[in-house]
Amino acid sequence: MGETKTVTSFSRVLAITVTTVDATDEDLMRAYCAGDEKAFRELFDRYAEPLFRAVQRLLADESAARDVVQQAFLQMHRARNDFAPTRKFRSWIYTIALNLARDERRRRGRRREDGLADEPRHASDDTPDQHVEAVQSRHRMAKAMERLSREQREVIILHWYEGLSFPEIAHATGAGLSAVKVRAHRAYKKLREFLPPDTS
Amino acid sequence: MSCDRGKKRLKSGQPLTEAERAHVEDCELCDALIDSSEWLEAGDPSGGTFDADANFAETKTQIGQERGFRARLRAWSTPRRFLLVATLMLGSLPAIAMISRRPMDPMSSMERWVLLLTVFVLTGLTLAYHALRGPDRSPRPWLVLALMLGVAAMIEPALPELDSFHVLAPQMFFAQATKCLMYGVINGIPVAALVALIDRRDRSLPGRLWLAGGAGAATGLAALALHCPYHDRSHLMLSHVTAAVVLTVGTMALLGWLQSRKRTRA
Description:
The complex is a heterodimer of chains A (200) and B (266).
Chain A: H1 2-16, H2 25-33, H3 37-59, H4 62-78, H5 89-108, H6 128-146, H7 150-161, H8 166-173, H9 177-194
Helix pairs in contact in A: 1-2, 2-3, 3-4, 3-5, 4-5, 5-8, 7-9, 8-9
Chain B: H1 3-12, H2 18-26, H3 28-42, H4 52-64, H5 68-75, H6 78-100, H7 110-132, H8 142-158, H9 173-198, H10 206-227, H11 233-265
Helix pairs in contact in B: 1-3, 2-3, 6-7, 6-9, 6-10, 7-8, 7-10, 8-10, 8-11, 9-10, 9-11, 10-11
């Protein structure tokens, strides 16, 4: 009994000491499950912004994206005892955010389907012409993305913009690896068909 | 060489190696990706600002509110929460059988009874399991689950009618139907309430909201199969099936109302 207690405390200490920048996401998640609050902050710092961008690309709504990120971390906290150490944290947290974003999209119905983000980006060194061109590019891309199916859109966002690998996308979306590849192929091909011959 | 490696190099603006170029020439996916990459970069729809500190503070506030009995139950792993529901569901049925089991008669068919109980229990457990799966798991199509509950609710009236040993007197028809309806609903409520209590989602869509009530409905149907001795089809439709509908729709409406009330307050 005493030995078990010592082992538990030891693993807890071990888990707590992994909160460093070099720790893997899975180590941090284990540390968080063992009660290390700093590990949560580190995971938040690593993933909150990429999740925000991904959800914003999906929902085209900044405030909804912020809300989904909060919900995703809250759900991560609630589901912490479901996290399997063998699973990749990155695809797990993307699964949560993606499911919440899908729910949000369904909840809002087709209220905002233009696919444009709230605030157009304007780099400070852009000339007015460059800015107009950038806005037009984004508008065309948004229109083209709108013509893809939800699944195809998700794959492009996760693959191209978020840099997830195909196995990670398969985990995050709950689809098979070959199905994800087929979706990606069709999506990129369709996207090219929907867009003008060049960006200029 | 994989498609992912090629994409990484393409995104970082580095030239492709010989092996990567050879892969791209043979790979239709990479070919399509390269074709649209310029547009993807130019038309990135993301924008806006993300204040990590403010968002973190709000998230921590929400997590800080996760206290008490419900929060502790919700933090249990999914298999453990499912086991809790299964224990309540499977534990309540022997209790019902002991306290208020229908009188067995020469017309009763044991096979029919076992079939009904198996269908109801399996349906209840399946719906409870899917209600308890959090957003960290990909959802299953709700239509399949709804169909499952529909089949469970309609299976008894759909079976060939048996000659009933217990004859329902016409003047007692509505009184008995009301009794059975109440009995089914009351026995289904604990399971529906428990599933709703330990569901981790705060904002469910209608496509998921009915699952807790559905699990309760299946439990109610099982309780009725144990308790009610009548095989009369009109009685089954008016009381047993109606009890399942009342539980499912009622729980869904109640949870929807609670969610919207919580949202309005927030």
